[in-house]
Amino acid sequence: MGIGLFRKKTTAELVLTNGRVHTMNPDHPLAEAVACAAGKIVSVGTMQDVEAMITENTTILDLEGRDVTPGRIALHSNPIPSVFKEQYLQLTEKTTGKEILRSLIDFIGRHPKEERYLAYGYDTSLVTEEEISFMRQTINAESPEIPVILVASDGLHMILNAPAAAAAAAEAEVLGMPAVTPALVTSVLLSADIATLLENLSIHMFQQAQKGITSEFVQPSFTHFENIYRELLVDAYQAHLLRQRYFGSLRVNAPIPERLVLHHMAQKHTACAELNGLIQFRTLVVRYSSIEGSSHFMSEAYVRQLCTLAADKGYHIRIAASDHFAAVTALQLLSELKTSYKRSAFSVEHDETLTEEERASILTAEIYEYAAKTPSGPGLMPDAQLEEDTVRAAERLGLAAECGSIEPGKWADMAVFEDDPTASATISPTTRMTIVNGQIVYDSQNDSPEKWNRKIRKTVFQGE
């Protein structure tokens, strides 16, 4: 017996039939047909259950026995480095001052005649004041005419060479600003090659679609990159070329005033409000260390205040805890918040081992925990992995009511596979199609990276 969202006459825009539909709904685990309308699933069951919804305007896909699952959700996606590759020098929070200089000199040598040079991602605690002075002297000598900007992982601290500092100071004077701010530096000095970024974005979306991924939570990065990335996605959305849903986040690495954090969150959330749920921004990511003097040190009181205020605004929260006390504090805090803010999603990233006694004393609600380091050893069985990538991932994003299973009322986000995705732990199934918001966004028989790239460039730059 089929499950329908509407009992009165409903017409379907897309019908998938003659398939093996893994609904991930334990009450009705398998079906053969799915009907979609207005971006939602409206019926799941047999062909007879959806026949009355078919009109001459309905697209009917005969799956010929292929397998269908909810679209996979990438919870830890990090596309920005690949989309912005060669646009900047990527540093890590373990890069020392000497290593920064060596890498930067090499990068400048490989990219002659650039308008500016940008390096991002170093940890301020690893670079002393003496090293900063020496670094400025070195990059002034290495690049006496072209601006060089080094940005710390927190996005706030910067090291500028003389041309960069002069350009920023001149703009501040024009604007009547009393001081040079990070926002001013990025607006004046950090241009972007949009054509290249669009090509890289197209490749990324194609690769994700090939895996059956229909949604991705994008790890936070430098605000400048994130803003450009989101603008690229908006362009793709407006041109009907978006291939995955995007869930963005704001990262806090240091004790920034709570009102400023919430202001930025509200701005980004509001900017995504009219994008049909395809581009969202609702998550605060907190990098937290309880060890004074270490990277990302914050007081427990600050973390509690910030997270409580964010939860009260309806935001989701992820805390990346770098030590045992921070992990315990984060789990306890978010467990407490979960009891009051049930619609928000809370998670903690850590590599600490907690005793059963500790867990019993601090956890009063289920909090998603995941390791900062990729665990070694065999992975999950394919049916368990499918559950993790769909139902559980939706829960961890706070979107269990919207996605994660194929049920009436949920987003029409699905993946069609040539093979049974639950059959083998060693061979990945071949994706035939991905469907987002009731639209086929990838078809392995007709699509290629080159075709996608040509279309996105033509549409964004020339219009259809």
Task: Please tell me about this protein's structure.
It is a single chain. The protein has 464 residues and is of the alpha/beta class. Among the domains are: 75-79 and 193-396; 88-189, Diaminopimelate Epimerase, Chain A, domain 1 (Roll). Helices cover 37% and strands 22% of the residues. It contains 14 helices and 22 strands. The protein has helices spanning 47-51, 80-83, 97-110, 129-142, 162-175, 182-189, 194-210, 223-238, 258-271, 300-312, 324-340, 356-362, 382-396, 449-462, and strands at 3-4, 14-17, 20-22, 30-31, 33-37, 40-45, 59-62, 67-70, 72-77, 89-90, 117-122, 148-152, 158-160, 213-218, 245-252, 279-288, 316-321, 346-349, 368-370, 414-417, 431-436, 439-443. Strands 9-14-15-16-17-18-19 form a seven-stranded parallel beta sheet. Helix 3 (97-110) packs parallel to helix 4, helix 5 (162-175) packs across helix 6 and helix 7 packs across helix 14 (449-462).
Identify the notable features of this structure and list them briefly.
Diaminopimelate Epimerase, Chain A, domain 1, 22 strands, 14 helices, 37% helix, alpha/beta, 464 residues
